[in-house]
Amino acid sequence: MLQSFAWLVVAASVCLAPCRSQDVSPEAQRTAEDHFETHVRPVLAKHCIECHGGENYEAGLRLDNHDAVMKGGDSGPLLVAGNPDESRLIRVIRYDGLTQMPPDGKMSDDEIALLENWIRDGAIWPEDRQDTSPATSTASPAPRTAAEWSQIHWAFQPVVEPQLPEVNDQAWLKSPLDAFVLHKLEAKGLSPSEVATRRELLRRLSFDLIGLPPTQQEISDFENDPSPDAWDRQIERLLGSPQYGERWARHWLDIARYADTKGYVGVGEGDIERREYPFAFAYRDWVVTALNDDLPYDQFIRLQIAADKMEVADPKSLAALGFFRVGRVFLGNRNDQIDDKIDVMSRGLLGLTVACARCHDHKFDPIPTADYYSLFGVFSSTQEPDDAENKRMLLADADNPHNSRIFKRGNPGTQGDEVPRRFLEVLSQPDRQPFTEGSGRLELAQSIASSQNPLTARVMVNRVWAHHFGSPLVSTPSDFGVRTPEPVHHQLLDHLAHQFMQSGWSLKELHRVICRSNTYQQSSRQRESCFLVDSENSLYWRYSRRRLDLEQFRDSMLVVSGDLSIEMGGPPVELTTAPYSSRRTVYGRIDRQNLPGMFRTFDFANPDSHSPGRFLTSVPQQGLFVFNHPFVIERAQQLEKDLSAIPAENETARIEQLFAKILARNPQPHEIDMARKYVASARENSAASDTLNAWAQLAQALIMTNEFMYID
Amino acid sequence: MNQENYPSFTRRELLRRTGVGFGSLALTQLMGDAGLLSAESNVESSLNPFTPRAPHFKPTAKRVIHLFMNGGPSQVDTFDPKPALAKYADMPLDKPNLKTERKTGSPFPSPFEFKKYGQSGIEVSDLFQHTAKHVDDMCIIRSMHADVPNHEPSLLLMNCGEARLVRPSMGSWMTYGLGTENANLPGFVVMCPGGYPVQDSQNWQCGFLPGVFQGTHIDTQHTDIDKLIANIRNASLSNEAQRRQLDFVQTMNASHLANRQEDAQLESRIQSLELAYRMQYEAAEAFDVNREPQYILDRYGPGTQARQILIARRLIERGVRFVQVWHGAGQPWDSHNEIAAEHGRLAKECDQAIGALLTDLKERGLLDETLVIWGGEFGRTPTVEVADEVNKGNVKNGRDHNHYGFTYWMAGGGVRGGYVHGATDELGFQAVENRVHVHDLHATILKLMGFDHEKFTFRYAGRDFRLTDVHGRVVEELIA
Fold this sequence. Notes:
The complex is a heterodimer of chains A (712) and B (480).
Chain A: H1 26-47, H2 66-71, H3 88-93, H4 109-120, H5 146-152, H6 176-187, H7 198-210, H8 216-223, H9 230-239, H10 242-255, H11 280-292, H12 297-306, H13 334-350, H14 369-380, E1 382-383, E2 386-387, E3 392-393, E4 396-397, E5 404-407, E6 415-419, H15 441-448, H16 456-469, H17 490-502, H18 507-516, H19 528-533, E7 546-547, H20 550-560, H21 597-601, H22 620-628, H23 630-641, H24 651-663, H25 669-684, H26 694-704, H27 706-709, E8 710-711
Antiparallel strand pairs in A: 1-4, 2-3, 5-6, 7-8
Helix pairs in contact in A: 1-4, 7-8, 7-9, 9-18, 10-11, 12-15, 13-14, 16-17, 16-18, 22-23, 23-26, 24-26, 25-26
Chain B: H1 11-17, H2 21-33, H3 39-45, E1 63-68, H4 84-87, E2 104-107, E3 114-117, E4 122-125, H5 129-132, E5 138-145, H6 151-160, H7 170-178, E6 188-191, E7 216-218, H8 225-228, H9 239-259, H10 264-286, H11 294-300, H12 304-317, E8 322-326, H13 339-363, E9 370-375, E10 379-385, E11 399-402, E12 406-411, E13 419-421, E14 423-424, E15 431-433, E16 436-437, H14 438-448, E17 458-460, E18 463-465
Parallel strand pairs in B: 1-8, 1-9, 5-13, 5-16, 6-7, 6-8
Antiparallel strand pairs in B: 2-10, 3-4, 5-12, 9-12, 10-11, 14-15, 17-18
Helix pairs in contact in B: 9-10, 12-13
């Protein structure tokens, strides 16, 4: 049977008090301490600590802290400093006498020699710090407590509305947001770009808000709309579309590491059912609906953590609890499952890497191990029933909510102190209280979804910004910890976060604020003068051109061939096998264990754990897909079939129709000419084996273009 | 655009500086942080994650073939002779058997004969008599050990350096760190006939690295190229028709690009379409062993193993960075029963081809730069498995899993040939001399590939991760 061996030790030992040895210089002492930490402790950790460490040590002997080692075990003293031959430790590891350690095999000669030399040199062992103190790196600034960090680190400060900065070009400002951007640009001697064309703007907005391209008609309507609120009405039209929820749900599902399967479940998995989460889709559908309804983000979070403990008007809201249920099962290992929940919650909602604290106090952030096990207690007091009748995955408090003990070095076999179920110290007031209502999940939810929490709103507006602009304001969207420096656009971030909370946590209002800004409406054109100063466009002097992601690409192909289904919700559909589904990609079945090649090739988020952001690559496998995948061929054939209403001799009209459907524009005269020549050549040189006729080939070619694949 | 006003605004600079999206940009930065980008390669890396890159120091191995005997081959029946097993046969051990997955009893002598091979005189059993002819090029580690006697965690430990959590596999690390020398083929190819091994694709997962670094799984039970690589062949157009089509696309792309001035990501996609076009022919060619002369086919012998091991050579020859060859779906080497027949059959399937591979690589001058690694996720007990409540009454003459001691061997790529490192105890149960943990093996392999395993990191979730996590030491004795 699978055993859980978790004894990550070395990383735990970083912060040291002075050594006890008195007759050595400070330098020599530090060198000796370093030697101990780098070489000696790892050997002890590797071979000894599993049995002789933590609280349940064997033979009365602990080899994981200074005092205990100096004291020795049931058989007496362990070490004679300076004399390895007289030291019991060395005798047993040499396998000299009756007692031979470690029992599962002698240490290597090198390791034995290392320990001998260490004792010969005086057995320098730095005193231990207390388990409860926060950790910092060895190259210390002085260690800081969580309380101190909460005063120092920018992301832990309360969100307050910053003062609007002064700018020279007042005329450019369309929203307060623009002032923050322009202020930084002007400080660098940069200027914003001109407004993009209406065609570019609508394509950008449409892909951003609903994940689909606009039709030629929609573009020309907008181009010909003289009213001053033309742009605002486009924003409202798209935010009001049910396809908005489908698009933005997928962004959330990346955060929630959504999949329809459990991951590896062991050998002999003949039956699909063992691998399947039959009701995962209910969670996905709930997210779509919640976003379409503009459910306030704080409530959106609370329901996902504790809907079962809230008074909900609509029982369908219980499906929100799927958030914690759609992770990997880790072969049924409960501790790993809880770790996954702590990780998705802390990185996903708070931008903190709490899971590091499973085995040791967080090396950088003020997250002590005790905090991890406070959260652990919440989840170990939670059961996971399914509501088969209503097809929902649920959570429910256990009958006997209980605190967890700390697992020393993450090892459940060596348990330390019990810690109360409560919120993270660094995000709490000094009078932090334990949770009292059942598992404590609702109190946890309230602590996160709170305007007092300095991270929740900041983290979310940063994610939304990144989806609109292609790059986030804080470059590590799921890590706002103390190693993440204050971002250049800290004030902009705080402005948006403050506005977000003021608006009642309305995501749609956040989209409005962003999309109405002049910053968002800039052209993506290259400008050398700005490029030389800020090549990465980190100050947003233009809009960043970018590739369609998997969902935008596949859905676009269905749109242009006229096949896209508007059906919403329901059980997942297989996307990569014939007959090819015409459903939106968000409804595709996500098998985290056997993720189809199409998903990987187009940089889909790894569904094994929370994903902070997708990579956007350009690899030849993407080309192979668009050349040869039968799904693409089918789209081309469908487009060709729709040409049949136009007489074959009217080639210009046919070319115009393909350009209109695929690229949403009229062809230029030289493009008509080029396309006619191509069609003629394709027809004349057609081989007997070619099953795609010349017009279908042209349709496929237009789908292959960069114009189709990139958003300006 | 008036370039004269911006003398430093060169094309190269543009390529280097142009933002290519959040993802690729972040990737380039991360590679830079890990010391993986020379100034020269930086230009290209921002465009293509597979561009060849230089590691920390000069490597002795540039490519890897990992022959994965999944299920766990028995060391005492292959590369670790234990005559004492015959001496103590059927006698109880003087101390309790080490705890493995199932109950085992008395020492069980190997049914296979060991002979000395080569100038080094290293003993190898008849099971690998063809492989053994290369023993003077092989570095045999008889003191491997892992953490637990179960397939799942041991497979993940061997492949990803971590038994339970999501971590990138060794092949993903290599392609992340080194790119690939042939952009017309995937950089990390995993061959496994008949489907997936235990733990499925997690064995070649990319973990938190970008998706493109995950191993590309090829089911080598197929011989048809269309089934071997997704979308590799165009079923509806001739080569000429497709070239004409691509020419039309690229003309459109060129004018699209001209209207937008220079943009590295648009150029990158133009290039990748060309690569995809070429890959259709290159990959079809690389996987087609029928293009080999008859004497080579004869040298490797018949069967699926021979075919996939020959494909491995063809891929390495074409610059693929990491090729992993699994014996088969599930756990073929897991001989709990009838080990004489089972191991006999399994070795017969691959021994000749492994010998041929080493001959072949040497003849072509590739062995110097190609690291060949052989082994499973663990070894097997020298004691016979006995019936208990788990394995009921079906057990006969087999061996249980054994992580306490097992054998790996490596050849080529700068390893010390004709050398045996470490030893198991008298019976071959546990490694006792010069023990080499899986993390140590990884550290050593990374060294051969030019990496300092403590510096080869990826920043993720607030921490710098390594293949060896917080463990591992380079075993210098294994290096020539």
